[in-house]
Design goal:
The structure is a homodimer of 505-residue chains. With 505 residues, the first copy, chain A, is mostly helical. Chain A contains 21 helices and three strands. The first copy, chain A, has a three-stranded mixed beta sheet, sandwiched between helices. In chain A, α1 runs antiparallel to α2, α9 packs antiparallel against α15 and α9 runs parallel beside α21. The longest helix of chain A is centred in the N-terminal third of the chain and has 32 residues. Chains A and B meet through α1 and α2 of A and α1 and α2 of B.
């Protein structure tokens, strides 16, 4: 590499680290707000967040950024760059163009709108009053249509939104994979509710001391390989994981006294996200590539650890005795098998975030189809409640009695997060596909889990996925690791096998 | 006010709020580092802190700041400003000049030096090796002498350093007040150790469950009027208070299992700082005046609440029964009076931070005299250990057996904090002087404390001191509240009365 190029490269890295500094500071501020910041300080804290966010945005669209990008994109320069640097330039260009194509005054209006829309949504959800939320949602959708116009799109307008969360994902691909899922999972879910032998879940709903739940969660984090020198566990209303930097990846959970597994599975889920962020390769530190590659791949890790490991039979064969020691009275009449069946109960329900592993995918599919229709121009905002309810009847066999437990249940749309929902189901599909590859290469995974030996599993994931951070796209990772494109049949097979066994079908 | 002036005024306020945003963000980052941030994230967190500090500094010395100041300092503009705005301009000018007079490259060298010096000091303290620390300390002192030359000084070079922590404080004033203190407190301390009836302190050194200590600390914060909606209590190695904004003033303490009062008095001490910051007038919010006016006045509040309230007889007449309920076995043979005497034991000791209320002032006086001599050119760094030990022998009647428990004990000098120490003793003097004024105006303070009625006391302090923030100088506050200048005789009278009673002299 030539000397001036190397100097420029270093200058660029420093510039990117400065942006990253704002990102990390903002991460700490958000974490703090959600884990116990006193309420009277919130107004001034918002001002701080606004100020720092503004500065970070300014840096990311500054003329200096454009100069860097133009320089490194020259073909004779580009070919001298390392792979890491090339991907950094590509990702920064993508972000830069996305940000610069929106007129700043329109973007500011949009930020104000979504902030109002979230507040109105909260109220509307409480009152089950879609009419109240409708004008705001219409504006949010209109803004997103306008942005898609400015950004451009290929194929379907919704593709541009999908790409923000899952680079490379398209309506064509999702139609295909969701089609396969629907074809198999809708009948499976129906068969279970018609002929299945439902597990007894009464043991789960007793009183379980919170301190002991915490003790069990902490123990489990240690078992799974979460690095406490590079993270901490706190409490918050909604569990989350936040990677401030790879040496500081925090998770939170929420202890419910009347539910023995909610906090535990929340912890394991966030642990999956955290293992990803804690194990990114050091040569990506301080760069924009030092994070998970997409929402879908991230979600594949939280769901892999939560569901495929944490809700598996060998896991509870190993850990049920430990749990029983903590709650000898409550679990007196339960054993590993009955507990395993109880925590895997599946039942059509109205609320996505309370859904089980099987029906969860159907909740997502509904949202995907509605969003696609909205941005394809086939559905108007005012028709959403009707369309929502019809799909719930079709896929899950139940219908919301009001919009609060229907179309108003999720926060995503009020904040403009269209295109995000598919990540959750993609995560499930990726996870099953990775598991298949892992079984091929590591052999008897169930035996490892049954012995509480998670290190080989974690190490495999680090080697195959985590260390790459954002250096490879989701598509590149899936192809390299599994030898094929995204394929929903692994998830289908996994769910068929697991649930037919549990429900004795 | 004219329209363009009003527009400029608002523009300036926005500029200052932006600087404040960085300050608050940095406050959260420091709080986080000290209350449990995972250690592996520390390096990248330092980079974030460096980046944000740099940006904040840049804003505070930017040409735009100078333009604002030049504009508002024009006499026809200045006379249209409110008092608040005038003081803001005055304080910003002071800061601006102080920062601008140091060449940036010299300042950067200094920052690097003090960072190294702190690391070396830590090691040197452990090894009691002054020679190891000496070359660093010499450089830190030389830098401070150079800065004083650039800043200028009146009377004594050390005055410029004193003014940084206690605006308006001078060697002349301190010589006078410390002279009076020394004249009375050195003989009092000597008389106590020669003829005093020493309290039995064995009850304090048993095993005291930490959760119960925490419970007692939290209860006490509530009693004293600490607002938990505008703060929180955490744990850290060294207790501290941090006012992120008036709606978020956090405190920390440290629970020692073998000491029943250490955490409690740490909590009450920091609560005093926090009450000050929580109760600043809303019209100062978001301005540089929204903080305590000086280190000395701040320390007066922590010490007022910790010592004059928390270590008083009526306080323990009221709360000892509550404490005894938590530790019935350990305190079985104690009563309020014996406990009161035990927690007020005084004894010459070598370590400042472990010193009692009476001898603490002597520790400060020693440091003041040495700093004054260093910057007056009468003492060389290499002669510090000898001078230190001689003064301990003279004022406290004891001598360190090594430099680790002598001249190397405090962190302040390694980080260049010359001029800071006097604040602690000033705090004691101010506190006693305020107490005198409070007794004049509120009547029987002891009766209020004995009933646990702290609201009138807090309200008086809010009205007289807290709400002003930095709008008045320490000198202005003391004169307005007490009707006279700083006067050490109140502290002397308070200590004479308290300790002669306890030691039956």
């Amino acid at each position: 590499m030539s000397e001036p190029l190397e100097a420029k490269r270093q200058e660029f890295r420093i510039y990117l680290r400065k942006i990253r500094s704002y990102e990390e500071a903002l991460g700490v501020l958000y974490w703090d707000l959600r884990t116990g910041a006193p309420k009277k300080g919130a107004d001034m804290r918002s001002e701080v967040i606004g100020s720092l966010s503004g500065e970070m945005f300014r840096l990311s669209v500054a003329p200096q950024m454009e100069e860097f990008l133009n320089y490194f994109e020259q073909s004779e320069i580009r070919e001298q760059l390392s792979e890491v640097d090339r991907v950094i330039v590509r990702e920064c260009r993508k972000e830069f163009d996305r940000s610069r194509k929106i007129p700043p005054e329109r973007y500011e209006e949009y930020v104000v709108l979504t902030s109002q829309a979230e507040t109105v949504w909260e109220e509307a959800k409480k009152k089950s009053d879609f009419a109240m939320f409708k004008p705001y949602l219409e504006k949010v959708v209109a803004f997103n249509r306008e942005f898609i116009g400015l950004w451009g799109y290929e194929g379907h307008p919704y593709n541009t939104l999908l790409d923000m969360y899952e680079p490379g994902m398209t309506v064509d691909k999702l139609d295909r994979v969701f089609g396969e899922l629907r074809e198999k999972l809708v009948p499976l879910s129906a068969a279970i509710r018609e002929r299945g032998d439902a597990p007894d879940t009464s043991m789960l709903r007793q009183t379980f001391d919170k301190d002991r739940q915490k003790q069990f969660s902490l123990m489990m984090l240690g078992q799974l390989g979460y690095d406490f020198d590079a993270g901490r566990l706190d409490e918050s209303v909604h569990p989350f994981a936040t990677g401030l930097n790879p040496g500081d990846v925090r998770i939170t959970t929420r202890y419910l006294e009347n539910d023995v597994v909610s906090a535990l599975f929340g912890t394991i889920h966030e642990c999956g996200h955290a293992l990803y962020e804690q194990n990114i390769s050091t040569d990506l530190y301080g760069t924009p590539l030092c994070t998970g590659t997409s929402m879908g791949i991230h979600e594949s890790q939280s769901r892999f650890w939560e569901n495929m490991i944490g809700r598996s039979r060998p896991f509870w064969q190993r850990y049920f005795p430990d749990l029983k020691k903590l709650y000898p009275e409550q679990l007196a009449n339960a054993d590993a098998e009955s507990f395993y069946r109880a925590i895997n109960v599946t039942k059509p329900s109205l609320i996505r975030i309370e859904a089980d592993e099987l029906t969860y995918n159907l909740h997502i599919m509904i949202r995907y189809e509605l969003e696609k229709a909205l941005f394809g121009g086939e559905l108007a905002v005012e028709d959403l409640p009707r369309a929502w309810n019809a799909k719930y009847a079709e896929y899950l066999g139940i219908e919301p009695s009001n919009d609060g437990e229907g179309v108003l249940q999720d926060v995503h749309w009020s904040s403009g997060g269209f295109g995000y929902f598919p990540s959750y189901a993609l995560g499930n599909m990726y996870a099953a596909q990775f598991m298949q590859a892992m079984r091929r290469e590591l052999g008897d995974i169930d035996a490892l889990v049954g012995e509480g030996r998670f290190a080989p599993i974690k190490d495999w994931l680090v080697d195959k996925i985590y260390r790459y951070g954002k250096l490879q796209t989701p598509g590149e990772i899936v192809s390299r690791v599994t030898g094929e494109e995204l394929n929903p049949s692994y998830l289908i097979a996994y769910l068929e096998e697991k649930y037919r066994d549990i429900y004795k079908l």
